[in-house]
């Protein structure tokens, strides 16, 4: 089968398209003919050996797929021919055939294409975890999201209202990304330059209830300043590179919280949680209450470019690699 493979840790540009044997199913595996695979920022980090998970070389890139079940265990909830989306759990996705554990495979709602389906699980369930579980989003609250035109960012814009937010403010670096943020459902969009003053003005000085931050870096302290009393700053990632520090007197003085939100860790330590999340998100997708992503598509031959677009900050929305 054809696959996008990393054999040296030299960044996205070193991803190669190779012919390798199809994977041999392990007990409990669902075999999927892959139509599309999602790209996420951890894929960038893994091409340099900088992510917490470091698979042995060579490895196949990507952690999520959508496709058609070729073969499933007899007691599985899916069977041959079903349209599904699945987590391969970081690695082994961008290939014509992928394996996923039964409990990480879900039937794709009929109204969602396979290309869009490949862009759902990783980001949407991260955002669901962030807002519902770690952020304790209450009805009508205001959510601000950094990197709002990125993968996690556009998921937040697509989902926040369906999960109860009254207002979703997008922070983006360019006018082009502002357009993407609006198209994905942002109530308000502000540019990174001067974002704090703009948000204070938008909220009449009150601030926001939740900041969802996949970016980190030097905007972190301003994120704390942007919170209303009782507000929560969700630490989701560090695409800016620098890991910020926090002076805890700021938390005390303004009654605000900084909350870590690592979805993968929670899923692995809480059996059944992923299925609970899907049971809540799937009906919202099927009913059109959460719009599916509208991904930027790259053919497998250009998998390196697809991953590089997240690395060089040109990606907008979810990026998906197509295999069939
Ligand atoms: N905690 C979790 O459970 C979890 C789960 C999934 C992903 N994540 C993390 O969330 C983060 C975002 O992932 P993603 O897939 O949404 O990435 P993405 O699609 O590449 O979006 C990231 C955004 O970060 C901003 N950014 C600021 N400085 C950047 C830089 N130097 N390089 C690249 N982007 C920069 C960009 O927005 P502007 O140009 O508008 O600033 C970009 O749109 C990653 O750190 C990822 O590891 C965490």
TrEMBL record:
SUPFAM superfamilies: GroES-like, NAD(P)-binding Rossmann-fold domains
Molecular functions (GO terms): oxidoreductase activity
Listed InterPro entries: ADH-like_C, ADH-like_N, ER, GroES-like_sf, NAD(P)-bd_dom_sf, Zn-ADH-like_protein
Record SMART domains: PKS_ER
Occurrences of domain Enoyl reductase (ER) (ranges): 11-321
Pfam (any one): ADH_zinc_N
Taxonomy, superkingdom: Bacteria
Name of the molecule in the record: NADPH2:quinone reductase
Lineage of the species this protein comes from: Bacteria, Bacillati, Actinomycetota, Actinomycetes, Mycobacteriales
């Amino acid at each position: 089968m054809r696959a996008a493979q990393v054999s040296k840790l030299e960044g996205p540009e070193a991803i190669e398209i190779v012919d390798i044997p199809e994977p041999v199913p392990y007990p409990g595996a669902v075999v999927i003919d892959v139509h599309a695979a999602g790209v996420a920022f951890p894929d960038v980090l893994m091409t340099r050996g900088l992510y917490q998970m470091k698979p042995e070389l060579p490895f196949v890139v990507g952690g999520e797929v959508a496709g058609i079940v070729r073969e499933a265990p007899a007691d599985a909830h899916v069977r041959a021919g079903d349209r599904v989306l699945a987590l391969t759990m970081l690695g082994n996705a961008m290939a014509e055939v992928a394996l996923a554990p039964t409990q990480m495979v879900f039937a794709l709602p009929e109204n969602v294409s396979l290309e869009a389906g490949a862009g759902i699980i990783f980001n949407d369930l991260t955002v669901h975890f962030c807002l519902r579980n770690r952020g304790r989003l209450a009805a009508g609250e205001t959510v601000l999201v950094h990197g709002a035109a990125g993968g996690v960012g556009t998921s937040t814009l697509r989902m926040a209202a369906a999960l109860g937010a009254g207002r979703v403010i997008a922070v983006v670096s360019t006018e082009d990304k502002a357009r993407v943020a609006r198209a994905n459902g942002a109530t308000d969009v502000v540019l990174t330059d001067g974002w704090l003053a703009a948000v204070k003005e938008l909220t009449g000085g009150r601030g926001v209830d939740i900041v969802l931050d996949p970016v980190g870096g030097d905007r972190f302290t301003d994120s704390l300043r942007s919170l209303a009393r009782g507000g929560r700053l969700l630490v989701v990632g560090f695409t800016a590179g620098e890991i910020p520090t926090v002076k805890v007197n700021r938390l005390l003085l303004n009654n605000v919280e900084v909350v870590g939100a690592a979805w993968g860790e929670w899923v692995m330590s809480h059996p059944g949680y992923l299925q609970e999340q899907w049971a809540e998100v799937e009906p919202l997708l099927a009913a059109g209450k959460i719009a599916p992503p509208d991904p930027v598509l790259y053919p497998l031959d250009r998998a390196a470019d697809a991953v590089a677009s997240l690395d060089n900050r040109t990606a907008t929305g979810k990026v998906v690699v197509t295999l069939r």
